[in-house]
Design brief:
Blueprint (H helix, E strand, L loop, with lengths): L19 E9 L13 H17 L8 E8 L2 H19 L5 E6 L10 E10 L3 E4 L6 H4 L4 E4 L2 E7 L12 H18 L7 E8 L5 H12 L5 E6 L10 E8 L3
Parallel strand pairs: 2-3, 8-9
Antiparallel strand pairs: 1-4, 2-4, 5-6, 6-7, 7-10, 8-10
Length: 254
């Protein structure tokens, strides 16, 4: 039997990519974070599944252009053939001119009985580009610095205080330390890391700060990863009422 030609999905030739961090993206269906299945047709579910796959990639600072390979598991190949043109359009909508290597497989069933398609991907996130994050507090704009910078797998967080909440936490070493660490961890997460990736911390304490209370807050927020730590008393901190400033360093798993 001769089958009609299908619109090209993905790259028809081998892809060669440069060095970087390999990201393996597990199976994604059209089921969203709320547990609801998005769409009843193959085209609708494919669009939702692709959105979920790319969201997972972006959560580790990857971009759609970093996707190098994708497997499409469908329960009905005939339905796929009938919808191939629309599926190709969805790929162009989400990936633009970028074309990963694509493999299609018809399977007897998916674990989710309502799912019509499941997508599995591999991406290579380049080590080279420097990524930055600003949270809009402090003197970031005026002094020309970022709250955090990521180079490859390494994330460095600038000296961070309780910021705008410091006034509400006057004299509260524990509260200021928790808020400063929370802001630092948020910056790590914004660049694709997680609290368990924090490998080093520094706590700078102003005169009058209660170091046992700072240590208590540190144990609560990052004690699970037990990072290397230095805690110092300094002559003072820039900013009225500030008792604590923290610095974090994180290393993303390879």
């Amino acid at each position: 039997m001769t089958l009609p030609p299908l619109p090209r999905l993905g790259c028809p030739v081998p892809r060669v990519v440069g060095p970087g961090v390999t990201v393996y993206l597990g199976g994604h269906t059209a089921r969203g974070p709320d547990g609801e299945l998005k769409g009843s047709t193959l085209v609708e579910q494919f669009g939702a599944a692709l959105t979920n796959l790319l969201a997972a990639l972006q959560s580790v600072s990857g971009q759609p252009r970093d996707l190098v390979s994708m497997q499409m598991l469908v329960t009905d190949a005939a339905r796929y053939r009938a919808s191939a043109g629309e599926l190709a359009g969805l790929l162009r909508q989400h990936l633009g001119a970028h074309a990963p290597v694509v493999a299609l497989m018809e399977v007897a069933a998916l674990l989710d009985p309502e799912a019509l398609v499941e997508l599995v991907g591999v991406a290579v996130v380049p080590d080279g580009p420097v990524r930055t994050f600003r949270d809009g507090q402090g003197w970031e704009e005026g002094a020309g610095y970022s709250r955090a910078v990521r180079v490859g797998r390494r994330i460095l967080v600038s000296g961070t205080t309780a910021g705008e909440t410091a006034g509400l936490l006057a004299g509260d070493t524990y509260g200021q330390t928790r808020e400063a660490l929370r802001r630092g961890i948020t910056a790590v997460q914004a660049l694709g890391g997680h609290p368990e990736h924090v490998v080093r911390t520094r706590l700078l304490l102003a005169p009058g700060a209660d170091w046992p209370q700072a240590a208590k807050a540190h144990a609560e927020l990052v004690g699970g990863s037990a990072p290397a730590n230095t805690t110092l008393y300094v002559g003072g901190l820039i900013g009225e009422g500030l008792l604590v400033e923290v610095e974090l360093e994180a290393e993303i798993d390879g």
